[in-house]
Amino acid sequence: MKKKTIRRIIFFVLVWAVIIIYVMPLFWIVTTSFKTDADAYALPIKWLNFDWTTINYINVFGKSALIKNFWNSVIVALASSVIGLCIGVPAAYALSRFSMTHKNGLSTWILSTRMAPPILCAIPYYILSKSLGIYDTHFLLTVMHILLILSWVVWMMQSFFDDVPIEVDESGMLDGCSRFQCMIRIMMPISRSGLTATFIYSIILSWNEYFFAMVLTSVKSQTLPASITSFLSVYGLMWGQMCAASTVIMLPILIFVFLMQNHLVRGLSMGAVKG
């Protein structure tokens, strides 16, 4: 009994340590967004004992570019996630259901495309986009985000399809369904929780993407993460406004994940218990 109590204490200490490690940066960002420049640079750090102000948010929302960048993020995230699912789901279904040589190696190769540093392809795409006249467009950034999330879509959806017995497809084809109809009418409704989880994860990846948005956009299609650099001036970092903008960037995706958390947990837990 004593050993069990000690293990429980150690477990809770570790859990709280992890929570603090992850929550502390968010806490610092949110509190700094309500500080004046003097309080933001004060040493020792003023955690809560400072004069709270909303001037940073007023200055941030006073920049019309931030509102435009918000809609750019929404357009690119939704477009890339929807198109990524339209391409990735049939590919995942084919990998799950069709017999082919080196199928496991192909799945591993698709996932391994995410392991390459973005800088390797960013510069060639920058030169190519300039030559084609599509630099700083929603189209270019959407294509790049599709390439970013597509491997995850295929990998995640393949695991969800693998959890559904193949007899389900065979029953559908006996009733006259084609392979495509089996995927649309049978497999996707059965795997809708996994589909929702994959869509949410794709939205998060696209919304938070910074590097391609920084290199391949300038003014017209710049997204919210890339707009953070506008708070870096020759006089230094405007910490208060930068943290206010960061809070504004985080808030929509946090609300979205909070509203969809039941679908996300249900989807990610599909097939967790096997055998």
Explained architecture:
- The chain has helices at 2-32, 37-40, 55-61, 64-97, 103-112, 119-132, 138-162, 166-174, 179-190, 192-208, 211-215, 224-227, 239-259, 261-268; strands spanning 232-233, 236-237.
- With 275 residues, it is an all-alpha fold.
- The protein has one domain (57-268): MetI-like fold (Orthogonal Bundle).
- It has a two-stranded antiparallel sheet.
- The protein is globular.
Biggest sheet: strands side by side, in what order?
1-2
According to CATH, the fold-level topology is MetI-like fold
* Structural class by secondary-structure content: mainly alpha
Number of helices: 14
The helix-strand sequence is HHHHHHHHHHHHEEHH
How is the main sheet built?
A: 2 strands, antiparallel
The number of distinct structural domains comes to: 1
For the secondary structure, the number of strands is 2
| CATH homologous superfamily (4th level) name | MetI-like
| Rg calculated over all Cα atoms | 23 Å
The CA-CA distance between the termini, in Å, is 32 Å
| CATH architectural category | Orthogonal Bundle
CATH class: Mainly Alpha
Query: Which percent range describes the beta-strand content?
Result: under 5%
| Mean pLDDT across every amino acid position | 83
